[in-house]
Amino acid sequence: MAVRSASTGSDRLQADVLVIGGGPAGAWAAFSAAQAGAKVVLADKGYFGTSGATAPSNTGTWCVPPGEGRAHVVERRWQRTGGLAEPRWMTRCVDRAYESLLRLVEWGYPFPTDDTGQLYIANLRGPDYMRFMRRQVQKAGVVILDHHPVLELLSDGEAVTGAAGIVRATGADWTIDAGAVVLATGGVAFFERILGGTGLTGDGYLMAVEAGASLSGMEFTGKYSLAPMNSSLNKGLPFRWASFFGPDGRPLLDRDGHPLQNGIGAAEKDVARALIRGPVLARLDLADEALQDWLLKGQPNCFLPYQRAGIDPFRDLFEVTLKAEGTVRGSGGIRLATDDCGVGVPGLYAAGDAATRELMAGASSGGGAINASWAIASGWWSGHGAAQHARRRCAAAAFRHQSKPLGRAGLRPSAAARPVDQAAVVEAVRSEVIPLDRNYFRNGPHLDAALARLDGVWDEVSGHLVGEGRDRLRAREVAAVTASARWSVAAAAARGESRGMHRRTDRPETDPASARRLIVDGLDVVAVRPEAEAVIAGERAS
Amino acid sequence: MIEIVSEQRCIRCDICERVCPAFVFDRDDEGLPVIARQDDCQTCYLCEIYCPTDALFVAERADGPTGITLAEVEARGLFGTYARALGWSRGRAGGTEADPTHRLRVAQV
Fold first, then answer.
1. Which of B43, B51, B66 would best serve as a mutation to test chain A binding (most A beta carbons within 10 A)?
2. Alpha-carbon distance A515 to A517, whole Å?
3. Domains identified in chain A and CATH numbers
4. A309 touches chain B (CB under 8 A)
5. Between A45, A193, A291, which is nearest B107 by CB?
6. Closest by Cα among A190, A197, A178 to A45
7. Is the ipTM of this complex over 0.90?
8. Model confidence over A260-272: pLDDT tens digits?
9. What sequence ranges are listed for the domain 4Fe-4S ferredoxin-type (chain B) (predicted)?
């Protein structure tokens, strides 16, 4: 058990491993670290069980049983990644995820049965899955801190040695000395109101870069999903059976004059173009009665907006939008340096959407299945890695006396603190990374101008923004979203071609010479460089 | 976003306040949940299914309140509809074993 210090009250804790974030990656990381013998604390910004993008969703997993077919499945999926994924990582991910899905079976998770009488383990219903994982993690002896957002990491100059945060209800400070830290903070949704997106503000990216880590794949934030207008339901699956119409109710046509259908296929780009011109209506009229029944029973959250607004989506036309999904269904995140998800900074690990998913999905989206399996696998590895690191390091335990906080923007401004209009900052950042005609379709001059503007916003935020009490959380979120947008636009400006979800209207071709991952570094000065070949396989952190 | 707390249905447990991932609720002196930070609501509908008495209603708009009234939610029978669709009951999980999503995964290809 982690220990609360008696001498200083409840504000200073100790653990071997601190896991930050209570989505699936954090859950598996905490379980894995505890199983490796570590004393583990899991701190969540919200509530472990409902936080993050998985809990309110119903997600497939990338479930590939062992056997001869596995290599072929991986190879086929790799073909869709724009050459940026790593078959070795994809293979070890499906292997680890499969083992863990079987673990869920052993634990008694109530999977459905398919027509052949087999348990169907390739799908996890979010509310049930995360509630179940909370219980397993509790049983493993992990101390759970709900509504305890972490604001910054601590370091003794050599390694990450813990973190500091606040109690959400009171704004009181708390600190934890830890032998290793796992960032399982999720991706960045740029304050887009998507399902489970509120807490996904790129906190882990900012904390990792402050500690000296790099990011990878940040240009791949061009993934959008269809949703009923004004809703939170960015779930594409029902739109597989949609037809699309203009505001006058006439069918939208593709270039060959065929009606636009299936919004999660090739028609998506045409729908995006139509949405730039004006309102778009949809109707789920390709779903026959059996499909309607499965949709209503299998994806009930997707139908809440219609039912509550009094719409029959199978018969009525309704307005739709494409919701930006940042790195949640994009593929960028913290670059991994080692097989156990170490980030190249001793004592610091990353898992789930906080880590880059470029190794799995490259320039394509890992949204849904791949990201779910990645959360399981990377959570497992990072928990083990963190536990091993803590064991090696914790013997002395004197490190905490030299621990210094690493947080800057929003906590310790580089110039004079003064009031910063945070709503205006958010608006300025969103105007660069949300609109379809800026971020779904990109072009070089726009990206260069956007980067210059975001540099200015960052100077304001890092120079002057500082929160007080409970408001420190919002200040740090605003800083992390601003930083994440700037890293994304910098990487997009540096990728002078189109590849996967990075769509440049001025460079529509894919350049074979650009089949390299792009690494982004830096806070005040952002640098983008192509990754040297075989770096991932060759490097080992201390 | 979260719009309605039914005083009549609510049993003054603290579950919604605890499970809301966006920390939207406070409680008043009598223990009744108060929607204190409505704009932080992420419209995830999870408070509805964790509520043991179906006392909460999240309206469909994520970007602002619809202004729906308690009377309308009661009259249209909208309390607890998401929980029932999932197979959750009285705040307890259930229904995954009957989830037909695997049929959709086959059909979508």
1. B43
2. 7
3. 3-221+327-401 (3.50.50.60), 226-324 (3.90.700), 408-505 (1.20.58.100)
4. yes
5. A291
6. A197
7. yes
8. 999 998 999 999 9
9. 1-30, 31-61
